[in-house]
Amino acid sequence: MNKRTIFVAVLLPLVVAVVWTEGKVDKRNEPKADVSYAFGMVLGYDLKETGIKIDYDHFGEGLRAAMEGEETKLPFDEAVELIQAAFIAMQQAKMAEDLERGREFLKDNAARDGVQVTESGLQYLVIEEGAGERPTETDVVRVHYAGTLIDGTVFDSSLARGVPSEIPLDAVLPGWTEGLQLMNVGGRYTLYVPSELGYGEWGAGDVVPPNSVLIFDIELLDIVREDEAADGVETGETSLPEGDADRENGETEEVTEYEEE
After folding, report:
1. In angstroms, what CA-CA distances link 196 with 77, 102, 121, 201, 213?
2. Range of the domain at 168
3. Which residue of 66, 142, 195, 238 has the fewest C-beta atoms within 10 A of its own C-beta?
């Protein structure tokens, strides 16, 4: 896919429509004026959501030159590269902001009564100690859990689905692998997972932003043995992928909702 195709498919919806008027005559009752205004209004909402700052005079100048077939100040490819660079810079700034916000949260959270911090930086709060076995890294565990961001957004929950999950501890986020090995069956913990032990700088699709601290309320129901076949549980792929190898390649698995069986 060449740059022009990328521009048309991805960026054109953001720049295709803007009202260009001359003088101060109110032409909003004319069909063309109505459509132009509507395009400009929708574009304005879209650009506002992205956070990109626009110089209206230069924006209109570039739009007019392109639509009227006039000579433009920039080659097309260079214009596309400038737009891409602007989006990348904005994304990097947002990632840095989210990383700092997460660090501040963990710093304050570590000072709370009962919160313990491991050598890796994982934080946990014991809600209720269990009396059963403690799993190892190679075990499959049966759990109920809810995952939230620090702003309270719930991004995944077996509790909401009403079905516990069976999860292999050697195939999930590092924060889960470590945190579940601290628990005994029957226990309930809250894990506060730093981004580097979670989805890291890649995040997880549109559900978990990059550099997010993750909060998990977890109840360890049981350790699943190889000869066990439990009914009414989620098995197979979990909504908490391992992530390390994939993130190194710039890939992530999206959080997946499961249907009740």
Report:
1. 36, 11, 9, 8, 9
2. 116-248
3. 66
